[in-house]
Amino acid sequence: MRRERIKLAIFGAPAAFKRPLYTGAPIVERQSEQRYFAWMKQAFRRNCFTNNGPLLQRLEKEVAGIHSVKHCVAVCNATIAQMLLLKSLGLRGEVILPSFTFIATAHACLWQGLKPVFCDIEPDTLTIDAEKAQRLINKKTSAIIGVHLFGNVCNIGELERLAKNYKLKLIFDAAHAFKCSLGDKSIGGFGNAEMVSFHATKLFSTFEGGAVLTNDKELACRVSVLRNFGFTGYDKVEFLGINAKMPEASAAMGLASLPAIGRRISHLKKNYFIYRKSLVSIPGISLVSLGLKGRSNYQFMPILVEEDKFGVSRDILYDILWKENVIARRYFYPGCHRMHPYKSLYPDAGRGLSVTEDIAGRILCLPMGLQYPERDIGTIRDIIITVHSNAGKIREWKTNRG
């Protein structure tokens, strides 16, 4: 075992890392950069930069093929993808979704005039608890939104059973789940549709972007029409649409990134298991298992901090890591139900979210896209061990800071 660091930045020592190690930093290889400019050269030669250009069409075909679905409709970002999907499905009333998700999942519902009803999560996968979702269904419920989290896929079978029995729409926020699967079946074709994110910090990026994946041709056509103002012809508008188009520059970035996805996942998987080996024996630190029911993309490294055993709280460890230039993130603290406007609209929502409250208070995601994983993860481990070993002194420091 490596020797732990005795001095911490909070006590005046230099930070462990000269430059910040970010959680969710963009991944761009030199080869991807070169491919990007080659694709963009085509766009300039065609003088075509948006409006469903050939690069976008090719990207949609490639992404659909990767996920074994018939249709991919790419748009400017994943939040807009969800909004267009909700609009295309004609939903009304209430939508059940987890509070333990990025705020955009809830925002998209409220923007469409839907009431988000927050559901608790499973303690192992951290995805929506189907049994608890069933208790929330009433006459106003029109849909369930499952969120595949950290590369773990929802309990698809139970959610599909609920949707069928109660005649509800079922959609999935798959922002974290590019190239993930349940068993041997890839995400993308579950429920009525799934939304994926192509944000700059995701495994697969188009700088900014997202898409709707579905096997429903009619639904895909509606989403496609709505992303282009509602036009169904040059001079014919039949629906209330918006401008959600993805430009060719973004599609080019996606096409440039696709050949690297396999290598990226292999690298992230390696990092994940180095972390597991490094952190598993530290008291009060437990690791969220990934790929429990299928294939994960290993983009995230979530850990849980148990204060009684570790010696200090998650938030103190978080502050210390930041001082060491380890930019950990508390995904998804404090939960949507504790953020505005939901905190004001539904002040009692937390009463049924005991697992969400517990996990949100203990979770921490560590940097994954590391260039020198053995060295960097070893240093991060040494920081965490040092914090545990000096918990009393650190608690005193925290008290004195106020």
Report on this model:
- The protein has two domains: 30-259, Type I PLP-dependent aspartate aminotransferase-like (Major domain) (Aspartate Aminotransferase, domain 2, 3-Layer(aba) Sandwich), CATH 3.40.640.10; 261-391, Aspartate Aminotransferase, domain 1 (Alpha-Beta Complex), CATH 3.90.1150.
- It has 15 helices and 17 strands.
- It has helices spanning 30-46, 54-66, 78-88, 103-111, 130-136, 156-165, 217-226, 248-257, 261-279, 307-310, 314-323, 342-345, 354-360, 373-389, 391-401; strands at residues 21-22, 71-75, 94-98, 115-119, 141-147, 169-173, 181-182, 185-186, 193-197, 210-214, 231-233, 236-237, 285-287, 294-295, 301-305, 326-327, 363-366.
- Helix 4 (103-111) links the parallel strand 3 (94-98) and strand 4 (115-119).
List keywords for this structure.
single chain; 402 residues; alpha/beta; Aspartate Aminotransferase, domain 2; Aspartate Aminotransferase, domain 1; 2 domains; three-stranded antiparallel beta sheet; 17 strands; globular
